[in-house]
């Protein structure tokens, strides 16, 4: 594991200035709403999803997931539209913050870190979810994919966030739970932190050589700050 922070006297010197967070599987457990929405979307598209492992579609871009089942681009776009309509009505309200997520974000903010999201959820979809769960105020920026295909992959999302003026010249860490997060970080020249309480596995994430691993939000904050807190 590479060093994340060092201490000089009684002062902790952080290795990073800013942290980019994936959302699904990293800050919130959104599986119930995503799985029910996927199931209903496939059924409306005339496909029986009972034999699918829908959980593997939590995290990757929506169009890519539907592209595994529908050959025509028009069908992929129709499925994406149906999904978003259902999710906006019910699925987005079936989310919960992971234990310790709010405290983790508060500790990082208080330490002076810049906090942003870099999620495959479109910005206009993820923002009200984070507001509803009380996590939005901790972020300097909430960014995600675009509704169209112009910013659709995790790499494109991370590059977009990194292009914002407040991150210019900053030392940035990407935090996520899936291979897409790790690959996006690598593509953009960033270190990555892999969380194991989300939807990815150690086997999925290990090949990317994460800078650190975390089995809880508490552990992630402790590792980044180098100062364990009492809980």
SSE order and pairing:
Blueprint lengths: L4 E4 L2 E4 L3 E4 L6 E2 L1 H14 L17 H6 L5 H17 L6 E2 L3 H10 L3 E4 L1 E4 H10 L11 E2 L8 H9 L9 E5 L2 H9 L3 E5 L6 H4 L6 E3 L2 H9 L6
Parallel strand pairs: 3-6, 3-9, 7-8, 9-10, 10-11
Antiparallel strand pairs: 1-2, 4-5
Helix pairs in contact: 1-3, 4-9, 6-7
Concise summary:
This protein is of the alpha/beta class and 231 residues long. The chain contains 9 helices and 11 strands. The protein is globular and about 55 Å long.
Descriptive overview:
- By secondary structure, this protein is α/β, with parallel strands linked by helices.
- The chain is 38% helix and 17% strand.
- A 5-stranded parallel sheet has the order 6-3-9-10-11, sandwiched between helices. Strands 1-2 form a two-stranded antiparallel ribbon.
- Helix 4 (101-110) runs parallel beside helix 9 (217-225).
- The chain is globular and about 55 Å long.
- It starts with a strand and ends in a 6-residue tail after the last helix.
- Mean pLDDT is 92; it is low at 6-12.
